[in-house]
Predict the structure.
Amino acid sequence: MSDIETQQMGLVARLLETWPHLPSEDRLQTFRNLATDDSEDFFLALGPRDHAGLFNDFNRAERRLWLRFLAPDDAADLIQELPETLRQEALGLIDEKVRREIIALLSYREDEAGGLMSPRFVRVRPDMLVAEAIRYIRQQALIVEQIFYVYVLDSNQRLLGVMSLRQLFVHAAEKRVSDVMEDKVVSIPDEMDQEQVGRIFQQHRFIALPVVDKDGRMQGIVTVDDILDVNQEEATEDIQKMGGQEALDAPYPEVTLPEMVKKRGGWLMLLFIGAIFTTNAMNHFEDVMKQAIVLTLFIPLILSSGGNAGSQATTLIIRSLALREIRLSDWWKVLKREVLTGVALGGLLATIGFLRIAIGGALDDKKVFTDHYLLVGVCVAASLVGVVLVGSVLGAMLPFILRKLRLDPASASAPFVSTLVDITGLVIYFSIARFILTGTLL
Amino acid sequence: MSDIETQQMGLVARLLETWPHLPSEDRLQTFRNLATDDSEDFFLALGPRDHAGLFNDFNRAERRLWLRFLAPDDAADLIQELPETLRQEALGLIDEKVRREIIALLSYREDEAGGLMSPRFVRVRPDMLVAEAIRYIRQQALIVEQIFYVYVLDSNQRLLGVMSLRQLFVHAAEKRVSDVMEDKVVSIPDEMDQEQVGRIFQQHRFIALPVVDKDGRMQGIVTVDDILDVNQEEATEDIQKMGGQEALDAPYPEVTLPEMVKKRGGWLMLLFIGAIFTTNAMNHFEDVMKQAIVLTLFIPLILSSGGNAGSQATTLIIRSLALREIRLSDWWKVLKREVLTGVALGGLLATIGFLRIAIGGALDDKKVFTDHYLLVGVCVAASLVGVVLVGSVLGAMLPFILRKLRLDPASASAPFVSTLVDITGLVIYFSIARFILTGTLL
């Protein structure tokens, strides 16, 4: 980042950039050194994990002050991050009314709509006049963080309609709220999974959406800034899984060594056990290798090409499924596409591979490539087409299969696909070699 | 998605879900069949690519109607997606005043702050009274899409302060705007890259930010819903690059076969040419293989383990760098961490691998594993530790090196790392074998 931008961003922004890299024992003092205004801005911008970290180090007076400073949904997130033993104490620092709000929020899972929502929103009654509604909103403005939309509720808290402040503003003061409100309201159930909530925001470009319980009673609002975090989390999880491991669920620098080994070791061992079948495949073709050791030279080259093609296909399809660009029922279209792509890509590599062997063989004095180097070239080229084709198709189909089995398509990691391709690739290569070279090298 | 949710989401939401899967020739008719209200909601929810698709199929009257229906920033995005030949015609359909706004927006690149912003925002003067300001905002509410914040500008359009409607509401009517506004304004330069804009939104949880030109004159606002798209695009690009290819820049189903081959073939050929060095490495150790063909059996197993460890490390570090959890200067900390992780993970695999060979060797009648099977097991185990260690370290360091060279760290794809590990892995394996087995098998 250039200096100009850093300057423009101000003290708080700069501190936010460096905060994750500050040793945790220096954080409290750094925070205490901020001017009141800055410390407020800064504290609001921190996430729940950092809130909880500071809370842990605060003295009792600070704990009380800063916990009450947060909106109830942020306070609930902070409390959720605290160790069990501190939670009761934290709840005890808050006034009865807000405590009830927070306890209600804590009953939701972190990853569902209810766990994301703020319980504070602006509400009006349908029979109010526009002028009355505006006055009423002015009173509520004192306790509500931000006014995105005004929600129209009946006496049972059931959601009847919605409008923006802007819409209220442009209507005549003597009209009724029920006549000017939008009554086709998109709302989300309080138990909807956050990933789906994120998708609805992404599709509709809403700033905030009302959350309702099973009986249609409005419980709160989810705002788009929460969705930024949700989408980032979900993308991080997918990326980490696509690397062939479990999602870390915490920033890399904060994961302890034993946890890291656990998150990575599980998949690594599973893939290793799968890859043991490559030794069986090799063993099965030992006679071929003994007679024509030149063939072994190309094993890593061929297998890695298949794995690379598979890695490309699987990342494309996993992301495309996640973005809903393609659906489960599109598997056939994707298969046809990948067959064509695989043949084209395999053909490219086969050409380079064949040329390499033909030129290498022609210039070769030591006869490493044997007299039959052109036949070896044909074997390698044909295997490359086969293995890239198999890689593309397996890589593309595996996410569909996982989705169909109700597993996470992102588990179709590059390493998973490579291992599958390694086993099939060896069989393809040696079968082709046996077919082409029997009578000459074999 | 369950039926209940689909129902609750309504016609427009359902159509948005199926739209990408409708054959393009059916889209226009489907759109025309919508009731006016629904078609408006639906059209607003579409992205620029789909806007342009419909625009292309519309008759002249529809083109005029729907282009004028969009806010200037969305209209500019639509026009940017049109083929060159249609752009002038599209601009001709719009009124002079809006056309000027759109032409100004078109002068920005799509991926900078100016290309994301809307030129319409609510402005007041610093010397207005709060009551005056509220009246003035009511007038502007007719042409402004949404009121997030109210911006205080001087007569040269320079940005002096900001406040939310809520803040205006809670202050007494007779106060001056300049006394109640927040004068420490975070603003973004019009040429800031969208990725950085996204990061600022993510950090500060803003709903909208003002965009200013070099002279500090306010040009428009970027809102958080645009950032959802930006972040999604950036994550998609990273994911695709991490799969070992160029970013597609379009949804998978819309990429033509030649384009697909181009985006994937470039890296695939590059990696293939790199992987040709594995044949050289193998060739270099041909004597070892000839004397102990049993060693070749484990080549795919060992190389894939190194590649998998590398894939894990590289995805973790690429994502962590993208999220700013770690910085370039943290490379040393990461290196130490990955050395420990690599040794631990390598140790796990080495144990499984050794046991497999020891048990296989003890039970082996055909003596495939030779009489020295325990020594072979030691070779394989030691190589596994070495190769997983090298994979973890290379995978973790490559993104740092690319960032340092001002290249995209996401290019440190799983395939790229695997190829590097393949070459070093072979050298490690055969060197260890030569060291341990000379005098017995060799």
